[in-house]
Amino acid sequence: MTTGTGLRALAASVRGGHRSATEVTREALDRIAAGNGALNAFTAVTEQRAMAAAAAVDAARAAGRDPGPLAGVPFAVKNLYDVAGLATIAGSKIDRDRAPATRDAALIRRLTQAGAILVGALNMDEYAFGFSTENTHYGATKNPHDPTRIAGGSSGGSAAAVAASLVPLALGSDTNGSIRVPAAMCGVFGLRPTHGRLSRVGMRLFAASLDVGGPFGRSVDDVALAYDSLQGPDPEDPGCANRVPQPVLPELRRGIDGVRIAIAAGHFASQGVPEVFAAVERVAAALGASQRIEVPAAGVARAAAMIVTSVEGAELHLPDLIAKAADFDPKVRARFLAGALIPGAWYSHAQRFRRWYCQQVAALFRTVDVILAPATPYPAFPVGQAMMEIGGNKLPAAGHLGVFTQPLSFAGLPALSAPVAGASPLPLGVQIVAAPWREDLVMRVAAAAEALGIVATATPVPF
Amino acid sequence: MAEPFDPAAYVPIAATAVGLQIAPTDLGEVIGAFAVLARVAGPVMAFSVPEDIVAASFVPEEVTAA
Fold first, then answer.
1. How far is it, in rounded angstroms, from Cα B24 to Cα A159?
2. How far apart are CA A316 and CA A208, in angstroms?
């Protein structure tokens, strides 16, 4: 019998007939029923669908068919993913009135084709415009490590659900850090793939030139297994690159001999509390990395990302901003309205800067393979806290959370937020970043760090 | 010399231009949010990008025979 606590072991136990998908799914639904009240991670639980899907997996196995590499693995998705039969609310009140989705988002279809079982939809900041998942309509999602604190956002429900072991796998989306920030704050792994790597069909977009979907998990192996199942071109999505899947799972045990790892300096070494920089240093030391590199104009890149996000987000929601502005989350409304008023020259210049910046970043990756950087400037703060003082400067507590993630996603880079072992009392994350399309390097370095014990989920819970 | 930029003057005029009606109760917050964006835009606009750098390449749709 297969033992262990990861997705591979779980799926192997279902494929081998040691456990049924029905039993595993029932247990997940029971855990959600027992644990979600304290966390507010789920906005919908798809029990009927989940039990039917689990029965189908068990039937496939009984008939001698392979139910897939994720057989019986329960998972949940940020509620901006289309789930057949549910309205795709994207954290909003406005979209509650939309017709239910008629089919699942592409990434849900890929996981279910691999045998995984969708058990529900997860809380988020309205239209993904936030870093804290303090949603006025659906309440704040609480951090499993301290329920008085935020889970991070905007994929806060996804990170909290995985951290609390309500599900072993969840999908989120990342525009400026919305996978990496909550992963860091909840002490789990969260992968933002290269922009354009995964299909976005059936996802409610926020800022199309930045948005990416990606998985959360409790180990490097879990994230790799899920990511490999998610890959592949999608002719329905013009933003999805026509690339054959490049599986990372076989790469995890290759080690890091010859991989040039550097620590991001300059912008990435200030504007945070000392603990986050110390955490990155510990990871770098364990990996034997001491080289420091400066990402050119990273602060300007962050600023340009804010302009691009504000314009693209506002344009997408302009009809609703005109017709029903009062129905937006008040925390989000003013930012969308302001974004709708940005002069075209600002946006166009930000995009031209972006092209230049991408060229500079590409040049950087001729001298290094992987960059380490903090994921957030501080650990999770109390729900409702508006401001944070850093180095004598008062900053918006949630708004500042993207200071280290935004410059990296602006160049479309793949990045994994990995929980740094021993960061206490609250989790902290390190970003492991590589050149576009080099998720293999990201995951190899993450696997090496995990093997060394320097990154690990904060409180491993057998699933 | 140009007048200093005043978000409080700009926001209501620009909102009218794009058909947005900002509730009086929201106006202060929207002006505040726009002032933040204007501050953020400062270093971006001040950054000199070479003239031959284009924002994005436009690729026309490919038509395949039916």
1. 37
2. 9
pLDDT in the model for residue A131? 98
- The pLDDT of residue A226: 98
Contacts of B47 in chain A (CB under 8 A): 297, 300, 349, 353
Is some CB atom of chain B closer than 8 A to the CB atom of A239? no
3-class secondary structure, A259: coil
Structure tokens, A451: 């093997």
Burial class of residue A283 in the structure, from the number of CB atoms within 10 Å of its CB (0-12 exposed, 13-18 middle, 19+ buried):
buried
SS (H, E, C) A267-294: HHHCCCCHHHHHHHHHHHHHHCCCEEEC
Q: Would you state the pLDDT for residue A462?
A: 38
Give the residue ranges of DSSP H helices in A288-413.
298-323, 330-339, 344-364, 406-409
**Which one from A165, A178, A199, A219 is the annotated catalytic residue?**
A178
Tell me: pLDDT of B40 over 90.
Answer: yes
3-state secondary structure of B54: coil
CA–CA separation, A289 and A256 (whole Å)? 11
Across A188-211, average pLDDT? 98
Of residues A306 and B64, the one with the higher pLDDT is A306
- pLDDT tens column, A2-16: 446 799 999 999 999
What residue has token string 């990273």? A298
What the block records as the tokens of A283 is: 């990871």
Q: In chain B, which residues have their Cβ closer than 8 Å to the Cβ of A338? A: 11, 30, 33-34, 36-37
Model confidence pLDDT, tens digit, residues A112-168: 999 999 999 999 999 999 999 999 999 999 999 999 999 999 999 999 999 999 999
A354 at B interface, C-beta within 8 A: yes
- The set of residues, in sequence order, having a beta carbon less than 8 Å from that of B13 and lying 6+ positions away, is none
**Number of residues that make up chain B:** 66
Q: Residue A344: what are its φ and ψ, rounded to 5°?
A: -55, -35
Whether A132 is catalytic is no
Pull the structure tokens for residue A446.
Answer: 């993450």
Strand partners, A334: none
Report the C-alpha gap between A346 and B30 in whole angstroms: 18
